[in-house]
Prior knowledge:
Layout: H1 2-35, H2 40-64, H3 70-79, H4 85-96, H5 102-125, H6 133-143, H7 146-152
Helix pairs in contact: 2-5, 3-4, 3-5, 4-5, 5-7
Amino acid sequence: LKVAVRNAALDFLRKRKTERRRQEKLVQHFASAAAMEPDEEWLEDYRQCLLKNVWQRLRRHQDSTPGNLLHRVLQAAADQPDADSRMLAAQISRETGKTLTAEAFRQQLHRARRLFAAFLVEEVSRTVEPSDRQQVDEELAELGLLEFVAKSLPR
Length: 155
């Protein structure tokens, strides 16, 4: 009987020690996971959500401003990056029924890029705390969008 009680007590202590090690490992795992960078899938979803919101905002801006083709021009340039401005201007002229020269297309594209970048910075600043320019730039860099914004916005 003494041997049986002794063995049961030893088994209990071993199980308790093993359980404690498991809990310590879990705590270490979650602590290291919390310190890790956000996973790429989440970043991609966040990036796509931001871009979707900015595209919609640019579209609303175009719709509310007569003679403005910023959304259409930027969308055409994004969809056909290898096309030249004459070809894209002719395509938009056909679609809208408005005459658009290659020079006017380039000017609208320049304005569209600047406005898109400004909208993107505003959108990101809503999610960053504190929302100073340095924090926003760091967030944009992490999302891989800073280089696009940097080309279009003055510092």
